[in-house]
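Quick entry between incubations.
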Amino acid sequence: MEKEKLFDAYKIFMGLMALMGLIMSFFGFGIPFFWTTFGILVLGSFIVVVIKQNMLSYLLKRCFEAGITLFIIATLVFLLLRLMPGGPFDAEKALPPEVMANLAAKYNLDAPLYQQFFQYMNQLVHGDLGESYKYIGRPVSTIIGDTFPVSFQLGVYALILSYLVGIPLGVIAANKHNSWLDSSSMFVAMSGVSLPSFLTGAIFIFLFCFQWKLLPPGSWEGPSFYILPVLTLGLRPAAIIARLTRSSVLDVIRSDFVRTAYAKGLSQRVILFKHVLKNSLIPVLTYSGPLIADILSGAFIIEMIFSIPGMGKHLILSVTNRDYPLVLGLALLFSVILVLCNLVVDLFYAVVDPRIQLA
Amino acid sequence: MKSLIVLVSLFLVFSGCTKSSKLKYGVDRSETLINNLQTEPPSLDWHKGTDTTSSEVVGNIMEGLTALDFDDPNLKPVPALALNWQGDKASRVWTFTLREDVKWTDGVLFEAQQVADGWERLLNPKTAAQYSYFLYPIKNAKAYNEGKIKDFSQVGIKILAKNKIQVTLEEPMSFFPSILNHHSTFPIRKDIVEKFGDRWTNPENIVTLGAYKLSKWDHDDAILLERNENYFGEKAKTKYVLERMIQEQSSALNAFDVGDLDILQELPSTELGILKKRKEYVKTPLLGIYFYGFNIKQKPLDDANIRRAIAAAIDKKEIIKVLNGEQIPGSSFVPNGMLGYEIDVGIPYNVEKAKEYLAKSSYKTSDKVPKITLLFNTNENHQKMAENVQAQLKKNLGLNIELKNEEWKVLLDRYKVKKGYGIYRLGWIADYSDPDNFMQIMTSYSENNHTNWQNPQYDELVKKALSEQEVQKRKDYYKEAQKILLEEAAAVVPIYTYVHSILVNPRVRGYKTNPMDQKIFKTVELVK
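Done. Structure below.
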């Protein structure tokens, strides 16, 4: 019992820290503080869950699997890049062969493929992602370090928005099943899913920047710059979450234990948000793994429309530039995030639904 | 609900929605020119950067030995770091006398050794500079770059005095001083590069001598240039230049419209029709051409009459109409406004003539001509142009053209092996202000000739023109060469000379657009 209370207190403490960090970062204060808080928060919940569920061996197994997955991904991306037609230094104004030879020698591209591969893997093991071919002299890790925090910040805000809007909207719609409230919130959700972000972004810019002159049309310099991109990015996942929550709540709401809860005379609010919601979150959680990875690693279109200095454009342009080290670095980063998110989601399954045993 | 509205309003007020006079980095709007650089410059190391964004920044923080006189139609080179220069009779040995009153931003005096250091670095194979071939005209420079010569003193560069440097070329070259306006040939401070390694271009390390100095560089976001008070020439009129990196053209247009940009360098082509009518609109012809080339090893393009027929059946004005642009149609392989531009070379649009050429070909009639593939890189404008050409050739000659678009690097890969296409496209913008820039593309030894066409006579004429000093003779050589390329062989069809269209906020005065598209800000003045 004591342990339980301790966990509850810890959870509240973490929540408060996260909230404070978020608010501060939004207004441009204490960004390092926010990241530290966030790190502590994620690590803390991890430790809490692992201890609570006795899942250390499970965790180790998953980490080992993740290592193998990353190795396979690195190998595949490495080989696929080499198979792709066109090289990193091909340009409209073709370079003389002597110059090409110098470039190949500098970047070790004249060595046999297996040697290049072993050299890359060796670098990777030592934590070196190499140097970009396009951004001459800039290490890939620096490029990621410069742009990832921006994409991450944008992604975190958008995620928070999508959960804050999506889940209540879904619950309300399910509860008032087949009412006007249900149809209208699902209409909003459906529009959110079907409208492409370049269109919603353009509409927002037109309304907020040109019609009402309330917000700036681009850049990433402070709270007023965050609103439109976060809204645009968060809208779609919010809509999907709303739909997922709705259908899942509809399933749960008909189960026996809910009827029992009603019979016990519990208020509707308690039934809905304490009993039903917790049991309906599994599909939302499943969707969250890839969603979080996707959103955090940079939204190309949103970053382009709002000229945000994030990582999204590098994900696309590094491939068109055939910037091998950058593509590899970003692919690995994306994979790490994806693997991590899925692991966290799996761990949370056990928290949300005690019937699930991971260990 | 009420509390939510109050909260949102408070937030909007807090977050500063009103336009402030202070910009990013705390600089004042009234003394800052805001330009759109569009993308992150790949490198501010002027020996390594090859793209327009890098050269735009470098062009404002550095100077070359020569500058270009944009008021002169031939863009003749004028003194910059070099006070004057002298070529020998054959234009083979060039002596440059340098200014002695120039200081780098750290106070060190500029001297000839730094010019030689820069050239050594550009040519050193370890630098792996993509533009090293710019100095190949210098004696033994190519061999040094290939690593065949290890001793740099064997390269034709000699320091005669602290302020005098002499260059000996492999072959005579009349326009050598013009090349020294290119950023790859700028001098360098070897001590700084050695001290900081790849990080020498960071704002805290870089040492330059141009009208501006690099003050801030937030990667993928913005660059701030600040006036160099020790600049040797006339000081920059505007204290700061804020270079933003807005890649998406319509987003940049939005920023321009709300006053967050003073100069919009690229206009979205879909809106060009409307933008052309705005008072902020400025257009400048560029030294650059767009052309279609024929792969002469591909049937039916191995028949010169088919190539001539196609050239005569394309109405360039119609293509430009489709683009809604202001490009200048032309048949000359040298762009409009450059020495060597000829109004009467090439095959003009003439459907009757086109039909005659077709009848003279080995195929006689269009139904016997096999399908021709037109290859271009995936891009809205290239697509529009290709579709128009397809329609024109169908209508005028009854030819069947198959359009094929490829991703940029895949396309370049096809060009390299010179296979997989009948007609291809290429755009070419001048690196230095001389027609040789264009004429050498189609020589047999050029990496950029994707036609499989070779002609020793053409090569010879281009070589002769390169070393000829007399302007009229050069013109004649180029005219003759173009006649071979465009009429006799009809290996390529020039479509138009590029025109650069921009929007300039009325508060900006003195911004000089130019045919080399060098974006120089030191002359810009901001009015209230």
